[in-house]
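Support case: zinc ion complex. Customer-provided input:
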Amino acid sequence: MPSNTILTGQVLSFAASPFDDDATGAAKLHEAVHISGGHIAALGPLAQLRASAPDADVIHHPDALITAGFVDAHVHYPQTAMIASWGKRLIDWLNSYTFPEEMRFADPVYASEIAGRYLDLALSNGTTTMASYCTIHPASVTAFFEAAQTRGMRALAGKTCMDRNAPEGLCDTAQSAYDDSRALLREWHGRGRLEYVITPRFSPTSTPEQLAALGALWAEHPDCLMQTHLSEQVDEIAWVRDLYPQARDYLDTYEMHGLLGARGLYGHAIHLEPRERDRLCETGGALVHCPTSNTFIGSGLFNTAVRKTEGMRVGLATDTGGGSSFSMLRTMAAAYEIGQLTGTPLHPAQLLWLATAGSAEALHLGDRIGNLTPGMEADIVVLDLASTPAIAQRHARAEDIWEALFPTIMMGDDRAMREVWVNGSRMSA
Ligand code: GUN
Ligand code: ZN
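Agent response - structure generated as follows:
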């Protein structure tokens, strides 16, 4: 049963993007938030909310920051059990660790076990929505959606399609990728809080025929998102050039096959050519920044601030298990560190926005999740800003909310999640 509850603390909502406005002016703090019927009913002073909802329970969190649940815009739930596998770069990492693990998802029982394990890890880290890749096995999609449905989560996922350059047991065909994706889409898309995402893994593991088949499926279902990888590592880009000699660049391998559009999610997108940047701007496709993955696999430095200045839609993501963490706090910290290396440090308001409203916008869900405003779905995190002795002693010196939050972004983990709410229900004590 969704509750009728007022939470008090420092309730943060964004009135604008801190990339458009002055970073701190975009955020507003309120004393309390009223949750009712699974939605945010109102924000404001406690006395006012109490007067309009006298029956609501009140839970006080005087020092905590109450924010929208985190949104992870790119993750591979099947890579949960092989996270932190040592010492390879992208193509070797895929062949040595990822593909053998993904083969195990031929067993639906294993898929269900890992889907539940992954979603519990995500929730314990304050992540209430994610866009996940599954494996080529349709049952891996079913396992994920069933596990998300049980938890009441707004979740997005799709069958990963590959018909070349992968082990035989992990290959489908152009036709079966189309047929299986279509069947799953029809079964799950728009069911409760679930959305199907058309998912060609990346150009090296799809033939042009498979990309075209999935492009056709997207044209038939334009309300779906499409997710893939783009220009993550330099070696990968050279490989794509060999595999698609007629394409102008990596993005063109998607564009030629109907896989470029506003509802496209392009993971990594680090090493873009000017034409690719222009086309992404024109079409409104979203780039998904995966900072812990980019350092862990050694991919390169994504320049968030510059991409935002160019007007691009940018989401933030763990990319678990290429990414080295399930935590969007750790992911924000890594985005900050990469910003430092590119000479464009991100403000804490920008980091928090990327992990909530920014990722929600990338997923075209900005009107439902990712922000605490009346009418939005009540996916909420109550963040303890003094969750460890090291953080607490730095927090004690903070002079404003951003200084109070930044030590938790840089040093916090699941211990900072005092409460996580999904669709108006409290998930953890
Ligand atoms: N490119 C294609 N597949 C993958 C994957 O599973 N992880 C990452 N990081 N990059 C990819
Ligand atoms: Zn990925």
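The chain has two domains: 5-68+371-426, 70-362.

Case will auto-close in a few days if no follow-up is received.
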